[in-house]
Amino acid sequence: MISVGRLSEFLKFPASQAAEVERIRLEVIELFEKLTNGLWNTRAGYVQVEEPGEEQRYLWLRLLPVVTLTSVEGKGLSDAAWTAISTSGYAVLRGKQVRSLLGSWPDLVQITYDGGYDDTTCPPEVQRALMLQAEFTYSRNREGRGALVSEGFPGGGQTTFGKADLHPFFAKVVAMRRRHA
After folding, report:
1. Tens digits of per-residue pLDDT, 148-161?
2. Structural contact between residues 73 and 85, judged by C-beta atoms closer than 8 angstroms
3. What is the DSSP string of 142-174?
4. Rounded to the nearest 5 degrees, what angle is found at the Cα of 180, between the Cα atoms of 177 and 181?
């Protein structure tokens, strides 16, 4: 989603601090994925196991966009081994769903695929939000820095403050990109 080199340049970190930049990068991506209820960062060989209902013909893929679908396997609840499902037994629709062409799915379905966004495919506003959040997080967590949070008391006047842990643009992009589960 964002490369270490690009984030280092944005944060004005020397190359000697690549490990720190990688830590910040992964932390911000993890936060974005958690808050949007979805997987975004590139993953190879991602395995998704589903337990579809009897009438369910479509399985939604969690890691978008899908780059390559490697395998689809099924098994019964009491089976020990997975059995490959032929490519004529399913279809990938709009890069988001796998549809059974044989009627119903087995009790358990395991889908292995590559997907997610990298530095070249990530939407620009998401990249910008991640970089701003990385800078915001780093500047707030440096030694000697902190954040104060105000609380209202019952019966007293109450002032509402924004969250002190999210950059405003990052929070806006998260709200726009949230996947409802």
Report:
1. 555 566 666 555 55
2. yes
3. STT---------TTS-------TTS-HHHHHHH
4. 135
